[in-house]
Structures are given as structure tokens and as C-alpha cells.
Amino acid sequence: MNAMDVNERIHAQLKKAGVTLAASLPDDWVAPLINRIAADNTMRHVRVAREAEAVAICSGAFFGGVRAVALMGATGLLTCTGELATLNLRHQIPVFLIVSQRGTIDDHRIYQEVQGRRTIPLLQAYDFPYHVVDRPDEIASIPDAFETCRLQKRPFVLFLTKKLLGTNA
Q: Which among 149, 143, 105 is positioned nearest to 10, based on CA atoms?
């Protein structure tokens, strides 16, 4: 399965979950998914300058009854964990995040290694639920992950791996 097929399937599952708003800060691994969402006239797309803005937009959307997703890279997730803890955990505001799982052993950009070692332990320290999607057959779990986020009223991180995305980065 090529990366475009994967991004089409992820996009379709987000629509199945009722997502109508996406806020993103580009990461080269999730850029094709972001571009696909931006081209969809049934899904509003908001580009942000900082990942914390995506969290804030999706949190506000929740109060308006709008199903939203924040898309970013692993570095961006690390930069906004404070907001996720103080805004979302403290006030029980669900926010669904799709994040590239950078820094794994197959990510040969050495500067990503720090994220690879620290991201999961940090999420575990905050007790944020997360799920790693690294096979195309797991893409169908996206609506369930989205509902888990809403039912638990807390942030939920869905990681997309290099293996899944087939990226050359």
C-alpha cells in the first residue's frame, strides 16, 4: 500500500468519526495527510504557527460541538504538553491528536532521536492515552480512538509510524 492510499484511508476514517475541523502545523511525515484534509471542502482546515494553537482551537471546537483533530509532529507534541496538562487534563477537555512518531530506530534523522526516547515516557508520566498505528489494517481503529478521547475527556494521541506512512524522510 502506498502512502497516498494510507492518507486517503486515514482521511476517510476521520470523516467516519465525524471530524469536521482540523488544525495543523506541518511535519514532513504528515504533510500529505494535511494537504488531503486542506483540499476537502467538507472539513475546515486551520493552519497554525504553534502546536499549542492547534490544541486551543480543537479544545474550543469541543465546546462548540465540533469534532476536531490536531495534526503535528512529535517535536510539536512535546512543546505543547504543558497546555495539554493544564488546559485539557485539568478541565477534562478532550483533544484528539494525530502525531508522526519521530525518533524511532527507522527514522534516520539523528536530531529526531531525542523525541523518540522522550515522547512515550512523557505521555505515560501524564497518563495520556495513546495508540501507535503502524499497519494499514489498524487505520480502521481511528473512530474508536476518537470516541475513547471524547469519553475519557482527556487528550488522546494517535501516532503514525514511518512504516505505515512509507515515508522516505
A: 143
Q: Which three cell numbers stand for residue 19?
A: 471530524
Query: For residue 132, which amino acid is it?
Result: V
CA diameter of the chain: 41
Q: What angle do CA 8, 151, 79 make, to 5 degrees?
A: 65
Q: What percent of the chain has a predicted confidence (pLDDT) above 90?
A: 67
Q: Is the dihedral of CA 12, 49, 27, 119 positive or negative?
A: negative
Question: What's the CA gap between 51 and 70, in Å, rounded?
Answer: 8
Sign for the CA dihedral angle at 5, 21, 127, 112 comes to: positive
Residue where the block lists cell 502512502: 3
pLDDT of residue 164: 85
Report yes or no: 99 and 51 within 8 Å, Cβ to Cβ: no
Phi and psi at residue 130, in whole multiples of 5°? -150, 165
Question: Comparing C-alpha atoms, which of 136, 36, 141, 42 is closest to residue 96?
Answer: 141
What's the pTM?
0.91
